[in-house]
From TrEMBL:
Protein name: SpoVG family protein
GO biological process: division septum assembly; sporulation resulting in formation of a cellular spore
Organism expressing this protein natively: Eubacterium ventriosum
Keyword Membrane: no
Alphabetized SUPFAM superfamilies for the sequence: SpoVG-like
Keywords: Cell cycle, Cell division, Septation
Domain of life: Bacteria
Signal peptide positions (record): none
Length: 167
């Protein structure tokens, strides 16, 4: 079972590329339930997988952090779903027409040879997208205000596998 991921610029001890997941379960209990249901659906040719964390209503929270490695990215963060599943690599980007939310994307080469971006996860309904993106922008604005108040942030150093706000 492999979740969608991306290749980083890092190498492991054997010199092989290190890959990171865009999204992943955060608890062993939910991971087992989630993966078991996906395998079960695969074996039975099911079109959908329904897995819940045991709640009637899903809780969603957002954590955004300053980005110090790209001037165009105002903040980068995660979306937590029921504190058991994470979407990583959500960004707020400064664009020509103002800031916008960018969900994790993968790049491919289009028919004309130009790079194309496609989101690997995204809100399905307009209502949820507006609610989620509103919260992401709110948290990003809070990060921007904090940065102004203290005169900028130090660049984040590489901590290896230690606990960081990024996976």
């Amino acid at each position: 079972m492999a979740m969608p991921g991306y290749k980083t610029s890092k190498k492991n001890e054997q010199g092989n590329p290190v890959y990171k997941n865009y999204f992943y379960p955060t608890t062993a209990e939910f991971r087992k339930k989630f993966y078991d249901n996906i395998i079960k659906a695969y074996k039975s040719n099911a079109k959908e997988v329904n897995v819940t964390s045991g709640k009637d209503k899903v809780s969603v929270s957002v954590a955004m952090y300053p980005c110090n490695f790209n001037e165009k990215i105002e903040s980068i963060g995660k979306i937590y779903i029921d504190k058991c599943f994470v979407i990583d690599g959500v960004r707020v980007i400064e664009g020509e027409k103002g800031s916008f939310v960018a969900m994790p994307t993968k790049t491919t080469e289009g028919k004309d040879g130009k790079t194309e971006y496609s989101e690997v996860c995204y809100p399905v309904t307009k209502e949820f997208r507006e609610q989620l993106y509103g919260e992401i922008m709110k948290k990003s604005n809070e990060v921007r205000e904090q940065k102004k108040e203290i005169g900028g942030f130090e660049p984040i150093r590489d901590f290896g596998d230690e606990k960081l706000p990024f996976r």
